[in-house]
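Hi C.,

You asked whether I'd gotten around to modeling the 346-residue construct. I have! Everything is below, sequence then structure, no commentary in between.
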Amino acid sequence: MSISVDNSVTISPAQCHRLGHRLGELQPKAETFLESTLFPAPTYDREDVAHFFFFVTGIDHRTSPPNQSFEGTIEGRYFQGADLLWHLSLQKFKENPQSFHPKAMAHITDEMVADWFSVTHPVPVTIRNPEERAALLRNGGKLLLERYEGSVLNLLEKAEHRVSAQPEKANSGLLHWLSQFKAYEDPAKKKSYLLLKFLLRRNLWTIIDENRIRIPVDNHLTRIALRTNIVTVSSDLAALLREQIPISQAIDVLLREKIGDAYFQVGQYAKRSVLELDDFFWHFGRQCCVVTNPICVSGCTTNCFVVEQLLPVSCGGNCPLSTICPASTNDAHRALVEPKFDTWYY
């Protein structure tokens, strides 16, 4: 099915207001990104930490290979998906922070990445497409060496504390300089905004144009936006989403850009930075508003990071967004999920 890009996605300001008001009531907390099993301690050199976040964020996308889940137990602790990627990266960083220097990354091999992101317990599993991730890492390392003297901090200095360009100076802002790298070339800037979140939260950088920030839109954020109806989609696009028929890159980018703008409105109504709200939405989509049997259908049956770490008051096993979410009572709306689109962008 071929659909027109024009008018296929529309923001719903009224629903953005309702969701923002609900988040104002919930007041979810923000993460520190100091978790000792996932992120380097602040005692490490700033440049080394910046390199760690630059390279790991650049390969933080779909981790599970076909017909397997990227998960495992390491030293008695269970990790899955992105958490396992970051934990294995931290182990490598602790062994030698210089493993994340651009000189090392410029020469990393497919086999090295496959070995890095493999676990054996309870069953052997290797991350999806290690050769793709190796190519992204090599590209990042080479360009940092060629253009920024091998320094992420030099790249940040070039950005002049701006997220995006000033009208009178097109070649400025972090988003512009990051887009040179294959890992960060996504037109909707998911990884770029995620890296920005890490840099700000870990006090590695500051910005002067906070109004240019958008949320890092991935599968979880897309699914929540569709179900809460902060964006509406045309009947043709809705059919593709429900039936999981592949969509074009143009439609994928348009959808995620519109969703990013919708979440920005939500943040304004909630009086919170969308990067702070992203912490809640990402975990909520990962644990609660899942593709099949979300908690509005199945109820909450597991230990929940959202409740234990992010919400000041327990949700009592019920969806905290059910009062404003059409999908909580509508099967057809609940069937709206993220598009089928193969990419390393998110």
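If it helps when you're writing up: The CA atoms of residues 10 and 232 lie 5 Å apart.

Thanks,
B.
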